[in-house]
Amino acid sequence: MGQLSFSGQSKNLFRRHCGQVTPLAFTGNLYYNFLVLEKKNGWVRFHAVQSIIVFGSVTVAANILKPIPFIGLGLSSAVYIIGVILWIILMVKAFNGEMYKVAWAGDMAENIINSSGRPIQYAEPGPPPEPQPEPAERAETVSEGVEPAAERVYRPAARKHIYGNREARIAGSAIAIAWSIALLIFFNFFNRYIAYYYLGTSGGTTSWMAVPVLTAEFSWWLPILNATLAISIVGHVLLIILDRYILREIIHIVIDVFAMVTVITLLSVFPFNFNVIPNAAVVTSLYFAVPALLIIIIFGTAVGLLVRAIRLIINVARGAAHYE
Protein backbone atom coordinates (compact mmCIF):
# COMPACT_ATOMS: atom_id res chain seq x y z
CA MET A 1 0.00 0.00 0.00
CA GLY A 2 1.17 3.54 -0.71
CA GLN A 3 2.26 5.85 2.08
CA LEU A 4 -0.08 8.72 2.96
CA SER A 5 1.43 12.18 2.88
CA PHE A 6 0.08 15.38 4.37
CA SER A 7 1.18 18.93 3.88
CA GLY A 8 0.68 22.18 5.73
CA GLN A 9 -2.87 22.66 6.92
CA SER A 10 -3.88 19.05 6.22
CA LYS A 11 -1.15 17.76 8.52
CA ASN A 12 -2.30 20.00 11.39
CA LEU A 13 -5.90 18.94 10.83
CA PHE A 14 -4.87 15.26 10.86
CA ARG A 15 -2.98 15.68 14.12
CA ARG A 16 -5.83 17.55 15.76
CA HIS A 17 -8.31 14.82 14.88
CA CYS A 18 -5.86 12.16 16.04
CA GLY A 19 -5.91 13.78 19.45
CA GLN A 20 -9.69 13.90 19.40
CA VAL A 21 -10.16 10.30 18.36
CA THR A 22 -7.48 8.74 20.58
CA PRO A 23 -9.63 8.54 23.77
CA LEU A 24 -12.55 7.24 21.68
CA ALA A 25 -10.72 3.98 21.07
CA PHE A 26 -11.71 2.32 24.32
CA THR A 27 -10.71 -1.08 22.96
CA GLY A 28 -8.70 -2.47 20.06
CA ASN A 29 -5.39 -1.44 18.60
CA LEU A 30 -6.17 2.17 17.68
CA TYR A 31 -4.10 3.56 20.58
CA TYR A 32 -1.12 1.54 19.41
CA ASN A 33 -1.66 2.63 15.83
CA PHE A 34 -1.60 6.30 16.79
CA LEU A 35 1.55 5.74 18.83
CA VAL A 36 3.33 4.00 15.95
CA LEU A 37 2.08 6.11 13.04
CA GLU A 38 2.43 9.54 14.68
CA LYS A 39 6.18 9.98 15.12
CA LYS A 40 6.49 13.72 15.63
CA ASN A 41 3.50 15.20 17.44
CA GLY A 42 4.06 14.71 21.17
CA TRP A 43 0.51 15.87 21.96
CA VAL A 44 -1.05 12.98 20.03
CA ARG A 45 1.51 10.52 21.36
CA PHE A 46 0.84 11.61 24.95
CA HIS A 47 -2.88 10.90 24.62
CA ALA A 48 -2.16 7.54 22.99
CA VAL A 49 0.28 6.46 25.73
CA GLN A 50 -1.96 7.71 28.55
CA SER A 51 -4.95 5.88 27.06
CA ILE A 52 -2.97 2.63 26.80
CA ILE A 53 -1.92 2.94 30.46
CA VAL A 54 -5.35 3.96 31.81
CA PHE A 55 -7.56 1.50 29.94
CA GLY A 56 -4.97 -1.26 30.11
CA SER A 57 -5.00 -0.84 33.89
CA VAL A 58 -8.81 -0.83 33.92
CA THR A 59 -8.93 -4.08 31.95
CA VAL A 60 -6.30 -5.79 34.11
CA ALA A 61 -7.94 -4.67 37.37
CA ALA A 62 -11.40 -5.80 36.23
CA ASN A 63 -10.12 -9.23 35.24
CA ILE A 64 -8.26 -9.64 38.55
CA LEU A 65 -11.35 -8.74 40.59
CA LYS A 66 -13.89 -10.75 38.56
CA PRO A 67 -13.02 -14.26 39.96
CA ILE A 68 -13.58 -13.13 43.59
CA PRO A 69 -16.62 -15.04 44.94
CA PHE A 70 -19.91 -13.17 45.41
CA ILE A 71 -18.58 -9.62 44.99
CA GLY A 72 -16.13 -10.12 42.13
CA LEU A 73 -18.60 -9.43 39.33
CA GLY A 74 -19.87 -6.31 41.07
CA LEU A 75 -16.35 -4.97 41.67
CA SER A 76 -15.37 -5.74 38.08
CA SER A 77 -18.46 -3.91 36.79
CA ALA A 78 -17.65 -0.93 39.02
CA VAL A 79 -14.13 -0.75 37.58
CA TYR A 80 -15.52 -0.80 34.03
CA ILE A 81 -18.00 1.95 34.93
CA ILE A 82 -15.12 4.09 36.21
CA GLY A 83 -13.40 3.36 32.91
CA VAL A 84 -16.45 4.61 30.99
CA ILE A 85 -16.42 7.85 33.00
CA LEU A 86 -12.70 8.34 32.32
CA TRP A 87 -13.27 7.52 28.65
CA ILE A 88 -15.92 10.28 28.30
CA ILE A 89 -13.85 12.85 30.20
CA LEU A 90 -10.69 12.12 28.20
CA MET A 91 -12.63 12.21 24.95
CA VAL A 92 -14.01 15.67 25.72
CA LYS A 93 -10.64 16.97 26.95
CA ALA A 94 -8.84 15.76 23.84
CA PHE A 95 -11.60 17.13 21.61
CA ASN A 96 -11.05 20.56 23.19
CA GLY A 97 -7.28 20.29 22.63
CA GLU A 98 -6.46 20.17 26.34
CA MET A 99 -3.49 18.38 27.87
CA TYR A 100 -5.33 16.50 30.62
CA LYS A 101 -3.35 14.12 32.84
CA VAL A 102 -4.96 11.26 34.78
CA ALA A 103 -3.00 11.15 38.06
CA TRP A 104 -0.12 8.66 37.87
CA ALA A 105 -0.97 7.54 34.32
CA GLY A 106 -0.48 11.05 32.96
CA ASP A 107 2.88 11.46 34.69
CA MET A 108 4.02 8.07 33.39
CA ALA A 109 2.90 8.90 29.85
CA GLU A 110 4.64 12.27 30.03
CA ASN A 111 7.89 10.65 31.13
CA ILE A 112 7.67 8.08 28.34
CA ILE A 113 7.07 10.71 25.66
CA ASN A 114 9.75 13.09 26.96
CA SER A 115 12.28 10.26 27.15
CA SER A 116 11.66 9.49 23.49
CA GLY A 117 13.18 12.83 22.50
CA ARG A 118 9.91 14.24 21.16
CA PRO A 119 8.66 16.72 23.77
CA ILE A 120 4.96 17.21 24.26
CA GLN A 121 3.22 20.13 22.64
CA TYR A 122 1.14 21.29 25.58
CA ALA A 123 -1.36 23.35 23.64
CA GLU A 124 -2.68 22.96 20.14
CA PRO A 125 -2.19 26.15 18.09
CA GLY A 126 -5.28 28.21 17.79
CA PRO A 127 -6.45 31.75 17.05
CA PRO A 128 -5.19 34.43 19.44
CA PRO A 129 -7.64 35.33 22.21
CA GLU A 130 -9.87 38.26 21.51
CA PRO A 131 -9.19 41.28 23.71
CA GLN A 132 -11.69 41.58 26.51
CA PRO A 133 -13.42 44.94 26.91
CA GLU A 134 -12.49 46.84 30.02
CA PRO A 135 -15.28 47.20 32.60
CA ALA A 136 -17.21 50.39 32.28
CA GLU A 137 -16.03 52.99 34.70
CA ARG A 138 -17.92 55.90 36.01
CA ALA A 139 -16.38 59.07 34.63
CA GLU A 140 -17.17 62.73 34.85
CA THR A 141 -16.13 65.05 32.09
CA VAL A 142 -15.21 68.46 33.35
CA SER A 143 -14.49 71.12 30.79
CA GLU A 144 -11.94 73.76 31.65
CA GLY A 145 -13.60 76.40 33.82
CA VAL A 146 -17.02 74.65 33.63
CA GLU A 147 -18.75 72.88 36.48
CA PRO A 148 -19.71 69.19 35.91
CA ALA A 149 -23.07 68.56 34.35
CA ALA A 150 -25.94 66.81 36.08
CA GLU A 151 -25.03 63.56 37.82
CA ARG A 152 -25.24 60.61 35.46
CA VAL A 153 -27.16 57.51 36.59
CA TYR A 154 -25.36 54.22 35.89
CA ARG A 155 -27.31 50.99 35.93
CA PRO A 156 -25.67 47.58 35.73
CA ALA A 157 -26.35 45.70 32.51
CA ALA A 158 -28.87 42.86 32.73
CA ARG A 159 -27.32 39.41 33.01
CA LYS A 160 -27.33 37.74 29.63
CA HIS A 161 -25.93 34.34 30.50
CA ILE A 162 -26.01 31.54 33.03
CA TYR A 163 -22.85 31.09 35.05
CA GLY A 164 -21.46 27.60 35.07
CA ASN A 165 -18.50 25.37 34.46
CA ARG A 166 -18.57 23.31 31.27
CA GLU A 167 -16.17 20.73 32.66
CA ALA A 168 -18.38 20.20 35.71
CA ARG A 169 -21.45 19.78 33.49
CA ILE A 170 -19.66 17.23 31.32
CA ALA A 171 -18.44 15.33 34.38
CA GLY A 172 -21.99 15.33 35.78
CA SER A 173 -23.40 13.95 32.54
CA ALA A 174 -20.66 11.30 32.39
CA ILE A 175 -21.46 10.18 35.94
CA ALA A 176 -25.19 10.10 35.10
CA ILE A 177 -24.51 7.91 32.05
CA ALA A 178 -22.35 5.52 34.06
CA TRP A 179 -24.94 5.36 36.86
CA SER A 180 -27.75 4.63 34.38
CA ILE A 181 -25.70 1.87 32.74
CA ALA A 182 -24.96 0.37 36.18
CA LEU A 183 -28.68 0.37 37.07
CA LEU A 184 -29.59 -1.18 33.71
CA ILE A 185 -27.12 -4.00 34.25
CA PHE A 186 -28.08 -4.61 37.87
CA PHE A 187 -31.87 -4.61 37.55
CA ASN A 188 -31.88 -6.67 34.35
CA PHE A 189 -29.26 -9.29 35.21
CA PHE A 190 -28.68 -9.24 38.97
CA ASN A 191 -32.08 -8.42 40.47
CA ARG A 192 -32.08 -11.83 42.18
CA TYR A 193 -29.61 -10.36 44.66
CA ILE A 194 -32.40 -8.17 46.04
CA ALA A 195 -33.14 -10.78 48.68
CA TYR A 196 -33.15 -11.67 52.35
CA TYR A 197 -29.82 -13.25 53.34
CA TYR A 198 -29.21 -15.61 56.23
CA LEU A 199 -26.68 -18.23 57.27
CA GLY A 200 -27.99 -21.71 56.60
CA THR A 201 -26.63 -25.24 56.71
CA SER A 202 -26.94 -27.58 53.76
CA GLY A 203 -25.18 -30.96 53.55
CA GLY A 204 -23.16 -30.17 56.64
CA THR A 205 -21.85 -26.92 55.10
CA THR A 206 -22.80 -23.52 56.49
CA SER A 207 -23.12 -20.79 53.89
CA TRP A 208 -25.16 -17.73 53.02
CA MET A 209 -28.66 -18.43 51.75
CA ALA A 210 -30.79 -15.96 49.81
CA VAL A 211 -34.58 -15.70 49.57
CA PRO A 212 -35.72 -13.24 46.87
CA VAL A 213 -38.07 -10.47 47.98
CA LEU A 214 -39.17 -9.46 44.48
CA THR A 215 -42.48 -10.76 43.17
CA ALA A 216 -43.61 -11.57 39.63
CA GLU A 217 -44.95 -8.01 39.27
CA PHE A 218 -41.36 -6.80 39.05
CA SER A 219 -41.21 -7.99 35.41
CA TRP A 220 -44.15 -5.69 34.63
CA TRP A 221 -42.33 -2.66 36.01
CA LEU A 222 -38.87 -3.42 34.56
CA PRO A 223 -39.60 -2.20 30.96
CA ILE A 224 -40.66 1.18 32.38
CA LEU A 225 -37.40 1.45 34.28
CA ASN A 226 -35.40 0.42 31.20
CA ALA A 227 -37.10 3.09 29.08
CA THR A 228 -36.34 5.79 31.68
CA LEU A 229 -32.68 4.78 31.96
CA ALA A 230 -32.29 4.61 28.17
CA ILE A 231 -33.75 8.13 27.86
CA SER A 232 -31.34 9.33 30.56
CA ILE A 233 -28.33 7.84 28.74
CA VAL A 234 -29.31 9.27 25.34
CA GLY A 235 -30.15 12.65 26.89
CA HIS A 236 -26.82 13.02 28.69
CA VAL A 237 -24.89 11.93 25.59
CA LEU A 238 -26.60 14.77 23.72
CA LEU A 239 -25.71 17.17 26.51
CA ILE A 240 -22.04 16.24 26.28
CA ILE A 241 -22.09 16.86 22.52
CA LEU A 242 -24.35 19.94 22.56
CA ASP A 243 -23.77 22.00 25.69
CA ARG A 244 -26.71 24.39 25.42
CA TYR A 245 -28.61 25.80 28.38
CA ILE A 246 -32.15 25.47 27.01
CA LEU A 247 -31.48 21.98 25.64
CA ARG A 248 -29.99 20.90 28.98
CA GLU A 249 -32.96 22.15 30.97
CA ILE A 250 -35.51 20.57 28.60
CA ILE A 251 -33.70 17.21 28.67
CA HIS A 252 -33.50 17.29 32.47
CA ILE A 253 -37.23 18.06 32.65
CA VAL A 254 -38.02 15.11 30.35
CA ILE A 255 -35.77 12.80 32.39
CA ASP A 256 -37.36 13.98 35.66
CA VAL A 257 -40.87 13.37 34.28
CA PHE A 258 -39.99 9.81 33.25
CA ALA A 259 -38.23 9.22 36.58
CA MET A 260 -41.28 10.40 38.51
CA VAL A 261 -43.60 8.20 36.44
CA THR A 262 -41.26 5.25 37.05
CA VAL A 263 -41.31 5.71 40.82
CA ILE A 264 -45.09 6.24 40.87
CA THR A 265 -45.52 3.00 38.91
CA LEU A 266 -43.19 1.19 41.33
CA LEU A 267 -45.28 2.43 44.24
CA SER A 268 -48.49 1.27 42.54
CA VAL A 269 -47.17 -2.16 41.56
CA PHE A 270 -45.04 -2.59 44.72
CA PRO A 271 -43.32 -5.83 43.66
CA PHE A 272 -41.93 -6.64 47.12
CA ASN A 273 -42.66 -9.52 49.46
CA PHE A 274 -41.02 -8.79 52.81
CA ASN A 275 -42.90 -11.62 54.53
CA VAL A 276 -39.96 -13.93 53.75
CA ILE A 277 -38.12 -12.17 56.60
CA PRO A 278 -38.72 -14.06 59.86
CA ASN A 279 -38.69 -10.92 62.04
CA ALA A 280 -42.22 -9.45 62.23
CA ALA A 281 -41.01 -6.06 63.46
CA VAL A 282 -38.62 -5.72 60.53
CA VAL A 283 -41.37 -6.74 58.08
CA THR A 284 -43.74 -4.12 59.50
CA SER A 285 -41.03 -1.45 59.35
CA LEU A 286 -40.17 -2.24 55.75
CA TYR A 287 -43.80 -2.17 54.62
CA PHE A 288 -43.99 1.32 56.12
CA ALA A 289 -40.53 2.68 55.26
CA VAL A 290 -40.30 1.65 51.59
CA PRO A 291 -43.60 3.29 50.46
CA ALA A 292 -42.73 6.36 52.56
CA LEU A 293 -39.34 6.61 50.87
CA LEU A 294 -40.91 6.28 47.41
CA ILE A 295 -43.44 9.02 48.24
CA ILE A 296 -40.62 11.31 49.40
CA ILE A 297 -38.74 10.65 46.15
CA ILE A 298 -41.87 11.42 44.10
CA PHE A 299 -42.48 14.64 46.02
CA GLY A 300 -38.84 15.75 45.77
CA THR A 301 -38.72 15.03 42.05
CA ALA A 302 -41.96 16.95 41.46
CA VAL A 303 -40.69 19.99 43.38
CA GLY A 304 -37.36 19.92 41.54
CA LEU A 305 -39.15 19.60 38.20
CA LEU A 306 -41.39 22.57 38.98
CA VAL A 307 -38.46 24.72 40.10
CA ARG A 308 -36.44 23.84 36.99
CA ALA A 309 -39.38 24.65 34.67
CA ILE A 310 -40.05 28.02 36.35
CA ARG A 311 -36.34 28.92 36.30
CA LEU A 312 -36.15 28.07 32.58
CA ILE A 313 -39.16 30.26 31.79
CA ILE A 314 -37.74 33.18 33.79
CA ASN A 315 -34.30 32.95 32.19
CA VAL A 316 -35.76 32.76 28.69
CA ALA A 317 -37.96 35.79 29.41
CA ARG A 318 -34.91 37.72 30.69
CA GLY A 319 -32.82 36.77 27.68
CA ALA A 320 -30.36 34.89 29.89
CA ALA A 321 -30.78 31.50 28.28
CA HIS A 322 -27.21 30.56 27.43
CA TYR A 323 -24.07 29.68 29.34
CA GLU A 324 -21.24 32.10 30.02
What's the quick description here?
The protein is mainly α and 324 residues long. The protein has helices at residues 9-21, 30-37, 42-65, 72-95, 103-115, 166-189, 218-241, 245-269, 280-318, and strands at residues 195-202, 205-212.
Task: Spell out the blueprint of helices and strands.
Blueprint lengths: L8 H13 L8 H8 L4 H24 L6 H24 L7 H13 L50 H24 L5 E8 L2 E8 L5 H24 L3 H25 L10 H39 L6
Antiparallel strand pairs: 1-2
Helix pairs in contact: 1-3, 1-4, 2-3, 3-4, 3-5, 4-6, 6-7, 7-8, 8-9
Describe this structure in words.
There is one protein chain. The chain is mainly alpha-helical and 324 residues long. It has nine helices and two strands; from the N terminus they run H-H-H-H-H-H-E-E-H-H-H. A two-stranded antiparallel ribbon has the order 1-2. Helix 1 packs parallel to helix 3, helix 1 (9-21) runs antiparallel to helix 4 (72-95) and helix 6 packs antiparallel against helix 7 (218-241). It starts with 8 loop residues before the first helix and ends in a 6-residue tail after the last helix. Residues 1-37, 122-126, 136-147 and 149-158 have low confidence and may be disordered.
